[in-house]
Amino acid sequence: MNNENFRIIYEKYREFSVNAANKIVENRTVAEDICQEVFFHLYEIRDTLDFSNDKKIRSLIFTATGNKCKDYFKKPWRKRENYGTDDREYRSVEDEKTDPEKILLRREEMEYRKQVLEKLRREQPLNYEILIKTKYFEIPPDLVAEEYGITRNNVNNRVLRTRKWISKEMEAFRKAKFRLFRRK
């Protein structure tokens, strides 16, 4: 494939790649950088690819964009460029990570989350297992439903109810924490 043909492919699918990346990273500038990385990589291996089928090209670009977005999130936050953010905003993120009070509050919340999951495991063992299998291990609901002899809809309903239960428990913790701070 020559450069002119690749330019045509680039112009045709560039916006598609940027939009796909923007939906994932939620930052247009970063999405454009990811798109550039995708097409740079495709340009490097252009001689090994078949560009005759539009569906395959679109699928390849979509997959490559998704993978580059995953790579972006694997980078430590401090290595990411900060686009158009105020220095005060940047410092507040740093201060929040080093403020001892905020660190203790985060640790308390993490401990409470563990307690909530333990309570769920004790009180609703089936819902706990279904939630862990579908959300943590990413086992498809159909397979989980088959394992427990229930319908897929029942699996999804149990996951939904369990998430609501967890949210309610966490909200109770936040309200209690808020009342504690108001007393001070």
Descriptive account of the structure:
- The structure is a single chain.
- The protein is 81% helix and 0% strand.
- It is mainly alpha-helical.
- It is built from 8 helices and no strands.
- The radius of gyration is 23 Å and the shape is elongated.
Give descriptors for this structure.
0% strand; 184 residues; mainly alpha; 8 helices
Quick structural overview:
This protein has eight helices and no strands. It is mainly alpha-helical and about 180 residues long.
Q: What are the SSEs and their pairings?
A:
Layout lengths: L2 H23 L2 H17 L9 H21 L12 H12 L1 H24 L1 H12 L4 H8 L3 H32 L1
Helix pairs in contact: 1-2, 1-3, 2-3, 5-6, 5-8, 6-8, 7-8
Q: What is the terminal-to-terminal distance?
A: 70 Å
Strand content: under 5%
Helix fraction by DSSP (H/I, runs of at least 4): over 70%
Low-confidence sequence ranges: 84-94
> Radius of gyration over alpha carbons?
23 Å
Helical run tally? 8
Task: Describe the main β-sheet briefly.
Answer: none
Which secondary-structure class do the elements indicate?
mainly alpha
User: SSE order in H/E notation?
Assistant: HHHHHHHH
